[in-house]
Amino acid sequence: MEIIDRYIYEVGNRLPRKSRRDVQVELHTLLHETLEERARQAGRPADAELTGQILREFGAPQEVADRYAPRARYVIGPRWYPTYILIAKIIAIVLPSVLAAFLIVALVFSKGPLAPLSVGKVARMFWTFISSGLLNLAILTLVFAIVERTQLQPDKEEVEAWDPDMLPPLDDPDRISPGLMVFGMYAILAIAVLLNLYPQWLVAGIRLQGDQAVWGLSLLLPAFAIHMPFINAFLALDFFLKFTVLRHERWRSETRWAEFGLGLFGAAIIYLIIIGPEVFRFDWIVKTLLKGVLLIVLIDSGARLYRMLKRRRFEAIAPSEAPASRE
Amino acid sequence: MVQASQRDTVLSNLGLEFRRGALVLAVLSQLGDEQYGYSLKKALADHGLEIDEGTLYPLLRRLETQGLLRSRWRVEEGRPRRYYRASPMGEQVQRELASDWQSLARVMKRVLE
């Protein structure tokens, strides 16, 4: 019964990774035994109708998962904690690597041993990276706390109107990786904080002053501020889109179209930056790179549009259309 | 109408609360011998205690986490089944709970008369 496998997959998807496999195996045996027993008692075949009836009795995947792992009020609960730690570790590796790279470049440019690079300057550099590390950790924690908080309160109407017909297929191309989606939300917030509060951290190069390498050759010129309202709007919409997709736990037709529209909006922003006034240090180099990015975004949007128009995708029944009960 | 629905909700919640503690004792009392979830459900039903799978299985896991049960997987009829049985601590807890239950039942009988 493929529908049982789909059901078990959806339940497992909502459980902490540690206990997922174990519960899925147990649930598999339990559902099949219940089905066989019920069919024997009723003297009827164990068909799709009876399976649907049993699954409705078991309840929506979220309800079943909640029985196995009741959701207490955590800042970051068991479902998300391993992903949180994984991303935090990645940040902890990437940031010091960037610091080391900057230090090496600074030493190379500073003609001679450490002497021109004063202790004070190195200390300031370390402080910048430590504070950026703490800031990233705060952003990451905030994103996970938002996700945890909102998933604590699943849509009651959706859970009540749940029906086995709403189960997506196992090879559902619209299934998402929740971890990647949360990582995307973190990246958006980190970029927003960087561009709005710390644009000076976007360093285009190291300025040489005599024998010393001086930090702070900012990539963005003050004129870049004219693009910020559009960029902020784009980031806010992208954050909201990822959040919505995460709530649905899969892509839906409307979110696919929203993603396509957002891609075009992003392309329009890049185009405006390219044709606009000088806003970057080494403006022509950056804008040449942006032309390449624009081309990639447009090709990607075209491919998305083609896939959306050609592919027949599974569409779950909206809760309002689902039968309340088939008893 | 609203009041009746509110009363039903309160009654249902109180009933669930009442039943929850009793289920732990009932389950422990049946797991002196090894049983898997479905056979345990049937054993309880034979005694007149119906319990749905969605309640029983998570309860078994919780009791195992608390050290009151032990479990192991066995493949039977081509299916992996998880067999549970009370741990020594579970057996001791079951005896003490059963004694508490009986004295509570006696007290409640007097209270309700």
Number of helices of chain A: 11
Number of discrete helical segments of chain B = 4
C-alpha termini separation of chain A: 21 Å
Largest interface pair:
A-B, 18 and 14 residues
Determine the mean pLDDT of chain A: 80
How far apart lie the N and C ends of chain B?
A: 32 Å
* C-alpha-based Rg of chain B, rounded: 17 Å
Strand order of the largest sheet of chain B: 1-3-2
Instruction: Categorize the overall geometry of chain B.
Output: globular
Helix-strand pattern of chain B = HEHHEEH
* Sheet with the most strands, sense and barrel status of chain A: 2 strands, antiparallel
The H/E string of chain A reads HHHHHHHHEEHHH
Residue ranges of chain B: pLDDT <50 for 5 or more in a row? none
Give the % helix of chain B: 55-70%
Strand content of chain B: 15-25%
Number of strands of chain B: 3
Point out poorly predicted stretches of chain A. 316-327
Strand ordering within the main sheet of chain A: 1-2
Proportion of β residues of chain A?
A: under 5%
Tell me what the structure shows.
The complex is a heterodimer of chains A (327) and B (113). With 327 residues, chain A is mainly alpha-helical. Chain A is 66% helix and 4% strand. Chain A is built from 11 helices and 2 strands. Chain A has a two-stranded antiparallel sheet. In chain A, strand 1 and strand 2 (212-218) form a beta hairpin. Chain A is elongated. The model of chain A is unreliable at 316-327 (pLDDT under 50). By secondary structure, chain B is α+β, with helices and mostly antiparallel strands. In chain B, a hairpin with a 2-residue loop joins strand 2 and strand 3 (79-86). Chain B is globular. The two termini of chain B are 32 Å apart. The mean pLDDT of chain B is 87. Chain A binds chain B through residues 19, 23, 25-27, 29-30, 32-34, 37, 57-59, 63-64, 67-68, and chain B through 37-38, 52-55, 57-58, 61, 73, 79-82.
